[in-house]
Amino acid sequence: MCPKQIAIDFGTSNTLIYIKGRGLVLQEPSVVAINKNNDRILAVGFDAQRMIGKTPVNIQIIKPLKYGSINHFDIAKVMLQNFIEQTKQGGRFFKAFSRAEVLVGVPSGITQVERRGIEEVIKEAGARKVMVVKSVVAAAIGSGASINKPKITFVVDVGGGTTDVAAITLGGILVENSIKVGGNSIDEAIIHYLKKKHNINIGEITAENIKIKIGDAIGKEEKVLEVTGQNLTSGLPILVNINSAEIFTAIKRPLDKIVAAIKKVIEQCPPESAADILENGVVLTGGGSLLNNFDTLLRNELGIKVTSVEQPLIMVTQGLGITLDHLDLLDSMMLEYSPRDIQNKESIIQEDKDIEE
């Protein structure tokens, strides 16, 4: 019996799981609610997200990933186990996840230690083998780009915790850059601005709602939104009207950092790649790219065309799912087995034989 093959986009903001033969089976926020008195997990995903800002002192809301790497190992493991449990089909769960081959997307700028942490969490959750691919490459594959050709595919993946930028060609990364700025940074900028300019405090859910409703990457929109927050002086609830011009001012700094990161990669590309970049432009993906007029901002700043994918939130997972059908190409691409799996390849083969017997 062949082992189950699973792809996981283990993101700072969201976790997505794809099972070969079934497609995308889970898309939940990477959030956990825990009872501090006994360390018991109370809720994960959407159930935990709904508790944000409304919990008593004994309940803590934790996001176990930060900037694409594991921040709370044990909680990340339990969260992943809960998510895996939710992928039951017809009341039957594929054999305890213990025989699964898992392909996971990781940020470009991740360190070996951070990468090992992600691998260990997935292993601890029960996976038999873990393989990794850079999320920006998976996003390129998911968008339909032919990354093995001698043509530059330029990808910008704006996630919750990081923005990854890469020029990809001939199955490898020519130049890449990763910064710890993403959708969450934009939310944080809105929170900071309202504290400074309006003397009110808002939560991350409210900040994200403001970003979605009146956020604009080029300051073109002229919208007003009534926002409820907490007066920092009196501590009492207060209503204020916020306009889109203010939000543009608030989020300009993180947007400038993303643009600078993209320009840095373009500048580092060899001169021969300029024609490809000009012809093919930029593929824009990731949940952070849903900010209104983000693609227009990049066109204005870079002077090249920008293509926004239709489903940016699932593009990495889609690419990982496609890659599951071509695992034989891992050695010739930037996709790779983890060092531990390479070292234990013979024992893994023997494990398969033992299980089948």
TrEMBL record:
One of its GO terms (biological process) is regulation of cell shape. Keywords: ATP-binding, Cell shape, Cytoplasm, Nucleotide-binding. It is found in: Cytoplasm. Coiled coil: none annotated. The keyword Secreted does not apply. InterPro entries: ATPase_NBD, MreB, MreB_MamK-like. SUPFAM superfamilies: Actin-like ATPase domain (SSF53067). The keyword Chloroplast does not apply. GO terms for molecular function: ATP binding. GO terms for cellular component: cytoplasm. ATP binds at G160, G161, T162, E208, N209, I210, K211, G287, G288, S289, L290. Forms membrane-associated dynamic filaments that are essential for cell shape determination. Acts by regulating cell wall synthesis and cell elongation, and thus cell shape. A feedback loop between cell geometry and MreB localization may maintain elongated cell shape by targeting cell wall growth to regions of negative cell wall curvature. PANTHER family: CELL SHAPE-DETERMINING PROTEIN MREB. Belongs to the FtsA/MreB family. Forms polymers. This is Cell shape-determining protein MreB.
